[in-house]
Amino acid sequence: MSSDAKAVVPLGHVVIRFAGDSGDGMQLTGDRFTSETAGLGNDLSTLPDFPAEIRAPAGTLPGVSAFQLHFADHDIMTPGDRPDVLVAMNPAALKANLKDLRAGSTLIVNTDEFTKRNIEKVDYAANPLDDGSLDSYDVHQIGLTSMTVEALAGFDITKKDAGRAKNMFALGLLCWLYSRSTEGTIDFLKAKFAKKPEILAANIAAFEAGWSFGETTESFSVRYEVKPAPMRAGLYRNITGNPALAYGLIAASQQSGLPLFLGSYPITPASDILHELSKHKNFGVVTFQAEDEIAGIGAALGAAYGGALAVTATSGPGIALKSETIGLAVSLELPLIVVDVQRGGPSTGLPTKTEQADLLQAMFGRNGEAPVPIVAPRSPGDCFDAALEAARIAVTYRTPVLLLSDGYLANGSEPWAVPDATTLPVIEPAFATEPNHDGEFWPYLRDPETLARPWAVPGTAGLEHRIGGLEKADGTGNISYDPDNHEHMVRLRQAKVDAIARSIGPLEVDDPSGEARVLVLGWGSTYGPIGAACRAVRAEGGQVAHAHLRHLNPFPANTAEVLRAYDRVIIPEMNLGQLALLIRGRFLVDAIGYNQVRGMPFTSEELATTITDVIESL
Amino acid sequence: MTAADLPMPGLALVPRTDEKQSAKDFKTDQEVRWCPGCGDYAILAAVQGFLPELGLRKENIVFVSGIGCSSRFPYYMDTFGMHSIHGRAPAIATGLALTRPDLSVWVITGDGDALSIGGNHLIHALRRNVNLKILLFNNRIYGLTKGQYSPTSETGKVTKSTPLGSLDHSFNPVSLALGAEASFVARTMDSDRKHLTEVLRRAAAHEGTALVEIMQNCNIFNDGAWESLKDSETSDDRMIRLEDGQPVVFGKDASKAVVRGADGHIVVANTADVDDWEIIHYDSHADDPGLAFALSRLADVHSLDNTAVGVFRDVQRPAYDRMVREQVASVRANGEGDLQALLQGKDTWTVH
Ligand code: SF4
């Protein structure tokens, strides 16, 4: 039977989840499928979900690693609530993921791994493949391992190595099923295994065998096609949040003329920022892997003092350790970008899972009145713009800035319209070069508009001065214990952060009908799920408005006005109501919290129900 | 000629001035607020007195300190300065020195600041060998918090926090620094201006991290902690002055000598009882820090007998900051980064 004989069914959108053991190469498989999908011009959104352990015992539930991809012929906002297709490489993967599957969904299982031992390992009473428990799904039982081994019989590799290529077989099959092209993957394999020709040939053969199997097997009677999504004309690539954030920092360095310095300590899920920046020394980037989190930010602050665009990148536990130095940066009033890629907490928590529960830590986690501006990206690609914005605020206002990303943004991906580097905003460091007060230099004499103090870097003749964490007199910067001066300085530092609101755009509201009475207010990575939920509500005839905060400190100047324009405000967050607490405290708005802390982005389905309930209660 | 061949490799990239400087040029208008009689005054005067001889542009000198009495030091130096937070000065100074090779960066710290709360940063700075000069004022007490024992206090010390005597075993800063792979380690005394200046001179010239322990008197909370080394009656008998190329002898009329004992350890013997060839000759440039370490261990924590002073170790090892700059420069030599190319990456598609 040739492929022409199988009908091609058009689909609007598909959610596929690849799930297997940590060692099964599911992230790679997902990445490759994503690349092919991006190349076809579909809109897409991905969600890798992997365990904290590098290799948990094989075949166990904690060892399951998954990659979910949502692609469509239209604009989509999330990696999808539930998979339409689940590829389960073993019983553990099936057990861990089946609950997310709707009846009727497609299930592709690797029967070779459904051995008695593997079934018992995950406490299945009987083999789920033949006890009828999967009857409500469209199950395709395929011996992925054995077929791969068979396809590679002629190769001079061990049976074990041959079996390892089963992910390529699965990828080939899925590429056939969804009419993805194969060249990209073959090029990728060629580059990856350039030095191992035998392994390269085996992987290509496994990939092609998977494809051919789709064509010939009776198991699949149709294949599918998802047409390209209409997108604004331009050049696109797929991008993940951490690299996007790193690129934003490099761009900020270029746009400000300041050398980029990263002081960091490895921590999940922020380490990729360190990895990425360490690859770009050709931009003059200096990355410093410090002895601990405190030294990471300490070195960054030292570099900032010397006139660098200084950054430290970490996750919540690292922020806890850096708090004192952030406080020092507030007192010194030096530019510093502090990246927090949030993960599940408290304490070590869920290192590889996402959460938004560091907002109040970012806002208040220091001794004394130590206001710090907060910027949060909303999508993987938006990490680029958010990093540029954090740098703008840090440099312009001489202040540490917290950039609150999260594990989902860090590892999730989406198509990204490649920015034109020539149109990026310019950041002006405006170093102090001359005495500013009757022939003297006063390090705390402020710009009347921004309230920023001068940035006078060592090496500038005549501007020698001393700064420190002790309270200082307004203007001269000399140590001062004067009560009135302290009151004045505390208010000044707050006023400086408040003044940033004048430099940021208004909070925009997405309310297509203009008749919504319910506003959903979000921040950070919930942008996708909230947006998708609002669309779902509107599709059912409901009226709802969505506003999403990029700046959490200070809030945009029109925030109060926006909030008051609606009868109800819902605030969905992956925490127990941290933004809601700020909004209530600040604006006396009786916001309704919608909170989930499952380590996963929340599903838009449930949120849509909540929104509809609130609308109907009016 | 590379920087390391210059007489002052540690300062090779720091701009010089032709203007004549004096100690006065390094004084600020801030009132010095240490207790009268504090050893810190002598150190401040020695540093202000010695800097002019380096002939550096003042604006290219930075003092970074942590927290403690000694850490007020930057406020009194008319250079750039940062009084930071407890224990973190080596980390902050590392970032500064890494990015600004044109600066002479000094860290001012104390025994609590460097060895207790900031111990981790200290050892890692030493191991990396960043171009920093760390002056550790060791008064064996917490002064600013009004008299608790410190990590260099002798066991049994009665203080506000240890009314029955401290139980902690102490650090020997020189031993610690040598164990932390330091390339330059010295010990000197606040009140010995000549010795202190000589040590500062060698530290400044060194490229890499230099640790200088300065035995400093806190006359309020630990008065006389180093007295037996200062008292002219007793000091000669107790203090070993290390001098390169010289036999290690001390005491009145060089009556004591440091020799290898039968088991290979070094011991103090009567010079009269040993042959000349048995006496150890000192070489701070020796690759192996073993002898320097052994000499640092001779000191008795309580009596201070056999306390060696001078430069224990002064070896050339590539400075971390220089290697970082060279790595970046070698990559840039193959082509500067192109932002548009970076943003584009390898896999793009065009929507028409
Ligand atoms: S408490 Fe001691 S160390 Fe501190 S200033 Fe007074 S005398 Fe000096």
For this entry, give a set of tags:
heterodimer, A: 618 residues, alpha/beta, Pyruvate-ferredoxin Oxidoreductase, domain 3, Rossmann fold, 4 domains, seven-stranded mixed sheet, six-stranded mixed sheet, 36% helix, 20% strand, B: 352 residues, eight-stranded mixed sheet, three-stranded antiparallel sheet, 11 helices, 14 strands, 28% helix, disordered N terminus, binds iron/sulfur cluster
Shape of chain A: globular
Portion in beta strands of chain A: 15-25%
Q: What is the share of helical residues of chain A?
A: 25-40%
Estimate the helix proportion of chain B, in percent: 25-40%
Using only C-alpha atoms, the radius of gyration of chain B works out to 22 Å
The average pLDDT score of chain A comes to: 95
Classify the secondary structure makeup of chain A into a structural class. alpha/beta
Please count the beta strands of chain B (DSSP E, at least 2 residues each).
14
Please outline the major beta sheet of chain A.
7 strands, mixed
The number of distinct helices of chain B, counting runs of at least 4 residues, comes to: 11
What is the subunit organization of this protein?
heterodimer
* CATH A-level architecture of the largest domain in chain A: 3-Layer(aba) Sandwich
Low-confidence segments of chain B, given as residue ranges, are: 1-5
Low-pLDDT residue spans of chain A: none
Number of domains of chain A: 4
Termini Cα gap of chain A: 59 Å
Strand order of the largest sheet of chain A: 11-10-12-13-15-14-21
The topology string of helices and strands of chain B comes to: HEEHEHHEEEHEHEHHEEEEHEHHE
CATH hierarchy class name of the largest domain in chain A: Alpha Beta
Please explain how this structure is put together:
The complex is a heterodimer of chains A (618) and B (352). By secondary structure, chain A is of the alpha/beta class. Chain A folds into 4 domains: 7-225, Pyruvate-ferredoxin Oxidoreductase, domain 3 (3-Layer(aba) Sandwich); 237-423, 3-Layer(aba) Sandwich (Rossmann fold); 430-502, no CATH class; 509-617, Rossmann fold (3-Layer(aba) Sandwich). Chain A has 20 helices and 23 strands. Chain B has 11 helices and 14 strands. Chain B has helices spanning 39-54, 89-99, 111-117, 119-128, 173-179, 193-205, 227-230, 235-238, 290-296, 320-333, 339-344; strands at 61-65, 80-83, 104-110, 133-138, 141-142, 148-149, 184-189, 210-215, 239-241, 249-250, 256-260, 266-270, 307-314, 348-351. In chain B, the strands form 3 sheets. An 8-stranded mixed beta sheet of chain B has the order 2-1-3-4-8-7-13-9, with helices on both faces. A 3-stranded antiparallel beta sheet of chain B has the order 10-11-12. The longest helix of chain B has 16 residues, at 39-54. Mean pLDDT of chain B is 95; it is low at 1-5. The chains are: A alpha/beta (618), B alpha/beta (352). At the A-B interface, helix 1, strand 9, helix 9, helix 11 and helix 12 of A face strand 1, strand 2, helix 2, helix 4 and helix 10 of B. Iron/sulfur cluster binds next to loops of chain B.
